[in-house]
Task: inverse folding
C-alpha cells in the first residue's frame, strides 16, 4: 500500500478493485476520499446489493470508529482512489472537542442506519453521567420522573423532545398502545426519540415506560446547538446520516 513518509495524516493511492473494508470486520480507521469512486455493498440473507457509490469529499469507514461496532458494509474502489487515512484516535479527539450530546446524536443516527440495513445496532459507548456539564448549551435542565405505563409518543404523532434515561426502562412497541410486539428496549444511559426529532419524521411505533423511569427531556434546540458546535467533519457526517434516514423513511412510506 503506497504511502508518504512525511509526518501527519497518511495519504494513500489505491488501485481499482481494492477492498477498503469488509462487512462484519472490526474497524480501526476511516478514509477521507480526495479523488476516485467507490461502491458500497451490503450483504443480507437474500444476497449482496449495491447501496450506492461515493467519491471526492466522502468519508468511509467512520461508523465503526464512532460506535465501536462492526463494519456495516463492504467498500471497494471502482477506480484508482486517492485518500487520507483517519485513525480511531483522531475521531475520538473530534468527539472530545464536541458537546457531550454529540456522541449521542452520532451513535443514535448510526444505530438507526444499522437497523435500516437489517443489522444489529451496537450498544452505546459511555454512560448517562458523561452527558451532564456545567457549560450552558451542554447542560440538561429538565429531569422528570415518568410512571410505569407512561406513553412518550404514539405512531404518527409529532415528537417534540428526546429522552435520556437516567434510571428505569422504556419499551418500543409496534402500533398503538401496549399490545404490540416489543421491538426495542432502552435502559440507563440510552437516548430514544432523537431520530424522529432530528429527521422530522413521525414515529411508526409507541414508546412506553416499562417501569417507573427518570429521564432527561431534551428539546430540539439542544440538538440544534449540539450540531452547530460539532467540528465540521462531524457536523457534515451528522447531516449526511439525517438525510439518509429521512430519504429511507420516505421511501418506505411510499412503498407501504
Result:
Amino acid at each position: 500500500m503506497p504511502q508518504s513518509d512525511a509526518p501527519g495524516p497518511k495519504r494513500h493511492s489505491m488501485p481499482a478493485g481494492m477492498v477498503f473494508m469488509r462487512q462484519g470486520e472490526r474497524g480501526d480507521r476511516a478514509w477521507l476520499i480526495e479523488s476516485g469512486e467507490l461502491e458500497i455493498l451490503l450483504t443480507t440473507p437474500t444476497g449482496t446489493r449495491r447501496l450506492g457509490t461515493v467519491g471526492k469529499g466522502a468519508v468511509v469507514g467512520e461508523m465503526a470508529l464512532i460506535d465501536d461496532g462492526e463494519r456495516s458494509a463492504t467498500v471497494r474502489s471502482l477506480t484508482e482512489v486517492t485518500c487520507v487515512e483517519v485513525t480511531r484516535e483522531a475521531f475520538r479527539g473530534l468527539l472530545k472537542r464536541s458537546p457531550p450530546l454529540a456522541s449521542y446524536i452520532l451513535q443514535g443516527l448510526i444505530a438507526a442506519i444499522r437497523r435500516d440495513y437489517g443489522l444489529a445496532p451496537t450498544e452505546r459507548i459511555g454512560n448517562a453521567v458523561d452527558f451532564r456539564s456545567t457549560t450552558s448549551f451542554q447542560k440538561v435542565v429538565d429531569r422528570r420522573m415518568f410512571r410505569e405505563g407512561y406513553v412518550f409518543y404514539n405512531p404518527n404523532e409529532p415528537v417534540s423532545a428526546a429522552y435520556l434515561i437516567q434510571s428505569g426502562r422504556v419499551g418500543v412497541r409496534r402500533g398503538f398502545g401496549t399490545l404490540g410486539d416489543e421491538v426495542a428496549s432502552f435502559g440507563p444511559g440510552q437516548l430514544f426519540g432523537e431520530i424522529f426529532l432530528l429527521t422530522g419524521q413521525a414515529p411508526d411505533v409507541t414508546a412506553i415506560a416499562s417501569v417507573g423511569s427518570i429521564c432527561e427531556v431534551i428539546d430540539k434546540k439542544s440538538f440544534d446547538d449540539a450540531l452547530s458546535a460539532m467540528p465540521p467533519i462531524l457536523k457534515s457526517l451528522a447531516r449526511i446520516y439525517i438525510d439518509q434516514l429521512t430519504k429511507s423513511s420516505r421511501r418506505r412510506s411510499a412503498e407501504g
User: Anything to note?
Assistant: The CA atoms of residues 106 and 157 lie 24 Å apart. The radius of gyration is 19 Å. Helices lie at 63-67, 88-96, 100-116, 194-199, 220-229, 232-255. Residues 1-7, 128-138 have pLDDT under 50 and may be disordered.
